[in-house]
Amino acid sequence: MALRESKRRQIVDAAISEFLENGFGGASMDRIATRAMVSKRTVYNHFQSKEDLFRTIVGMAGEEARTTLNVTYDPSRPLRPQLVELGQAEGRLIRSASFMRMMRMAMGEVLRDATLAAELNRCSDHLSIFNAFFAAAKASGALITDDSEMVSSQFIALIKATTFWPSVLSGRPISAEDMDRVVEHGATTIVAAFGAPEADSAPASDQNP
To answer: Does the predicted model carry a pTM greater than 0.70?
Structure first.
């Protein structure tokens, strides 16, 4: 089983390199086999087609995102530190070499193929995690807004605009220090714009007399 998983990972890594270099349309299963140092038959034993390989890679990216973004809103805690935790989780994804490599591969293809774009949206259920967090914050009264999904999108944009997209385009990771700075600024901006007056304070039971 371990050997099978190792071979599968070799093929996936080779496919990502092939798709990045030649695009989905120009990618060759023969070259993927050569890059992975396995036979073409071994590739097809694991994956039925290029489409199957692409879906697998997108699914892996989605699973990494869901695992990393394991942050839910806690109404007993102040809003801002929880926003920082959510932003830092997103930052770990953006600083993950494997995740960003998969994203660069996927982003290059979704611009050319609507079917693949739909597959990416289906597998990377990213936005819903943020939306659930902000909906819970609104329901608790920590956010003052008629549209928690709009606030969610703004928070994502505050983080991604200067981190994710530059990394996708340049292939260079953002530093941990810069990521922390962006996340802190994003959290401060959201609390200032939409936070209830007490949203950044500890619950009354936690206050000193």
So the answer is: yes
